[in-house]
Each structure stands twice: as structure tokens, then as C-alpha cells.
Design brief:
140 residues, four-stranded antiparallel beta sheet, 39% helix, globular, binds adenosine-5'-diphosphate, binds magnesium ion
Length: 140
């Protein structure tokens, strides 16, 4: 499988509990490498633009409120099959369904406050990375 890049976000529930290091440890231990990283806080417009694909979903407004409720950590991860590998390490959206050892199993509070985002395809990864970082902020 090819070397890929994917967008990862550590969400406000995790920054609030001071567990960004524990989450990054799981990602790095799985063979993913952080090639860009910044702690920031999204405006409502930022969150609405990022999650535009979900705007018709019943949870959209709550999700935007949650994602703007505190700091987040945006990161680009690189590695063999990084998109799928990151999704594997994250675990299922609902922590009740997440496999043992995954980030969401170990750290998520509920289906919304689930600690991490990860791109779901190579195409979406490229678009999400471009939304969050300039080219010269990626240092492989
Ligand atoms: P994933 O983050 O696993 O790719 P989705 O793309 O389906 O999941 O949803 C985006 C985010 O919206 C989830 O990570 C979660 O924070 C929130 N979310 C998804 N489904 C629900 C739901 N049924 N109720 C509340 N929040 C949800
Ligand atoms: Mg998704």
C-alpha cells in the first residue's frame, strides 16, 4: 500500500481532559507520523465549513457547537495506508461499538464527544488537509 496523508483532529472533549499526548501516542505507536500539527480554536463558520457534508443531519448544530466549544489539535498524519490505518486506530464512531485498544474505546465520552476525527477517504483527506494547512506547514 502507498504512503498516504490523512487529516486527524483531536476534539474539544479530549483537549479539555488533557489527554492529547495519550491520543498521539496511540497514533504514533500504530506507525503514523505527525507531519503537521497545530492547536487552535474554530469559529462557527470554520466548523460549519469543515462539516458541510453533514449539514442535513439532525446532529449538525450540536456537532458545530461541540467542535467550537474549546481548543482542538489539527494534525496531518503520514504512513502506509494512513487513511484506513488512522480510522482503525480511532475505532467506531460510537464508542459503545469501538474495538478494544482503539482511541474511541479508551477515551471517547459518547457518540458525539468521541475524541478524534479522521478523514474517511484519500479524496476527502486531500480536501480536509487543504482546508486546515498551507503546503509549507507540512514537514515530512
Ligand atoms: P466519523 O467521525 O466516525 O467519521 P461521522 O462522519 O458519521 O463519523 O460523523 C461526524 C461526527 O459527528 C462524529 O465523529 C461525531 O462527533 C458526530 N456524530 C455522528 N453521529 C452522531 C450522532 N448520531 N449523534 C451525535 N453526534 C454524532
Ligand atoms: Mg466522518
Amino acid at each position: 500500500m502507498a504512503i498516504e496523508r490523512t487529516l486527524s483532529i483531536i476534539k474539544p472533549d479530549a483537549t479539555a481532559r488533557n489527554i492529547t499526548g495519550k491520543i498521539i501516542d496511540k497514533l504514533e505507536s500504530a506507525g503514523l507520523r505527525v507531519v503537521a500539527q497545530k492547536r487552535t480554536k474554530w469559529s462557527t463558520a470554520d466548523a460549519e465549513a469543515f462539516y458541510a457534508v453533514h449539514k442535513e443531519r439532525p446532529f449538525f448544530n450540536d456537532l458545530v457547537a461541540f467542535m467550537t466549544s474549546g481548543p482542538i489539535v489539527l494534525q496531518v498524519l503520514e504512513g502506509e495506508g494512513a487513511v484506513l490505518k488512522n480510522r482503525d486506530v480511532m475505532g467506531a464512531t460510537n464508542p459503545a461499538d469501538a474495538a478494544d485498544g482503539t482511541i474511541r474505546k479508551d477515551f471517547a465520552e459518547n457518540i458525539e464527544r468521541n475524541s478524534v476525527h479522521g478523514s474517511d477517504s484519500a479524496e476527502n483527506a486531500a480536501a480536509e488537509i487543504a482546508m486546515c494547512f498551507k503546503d509549507d506547514e507540512l514537514v515530512g
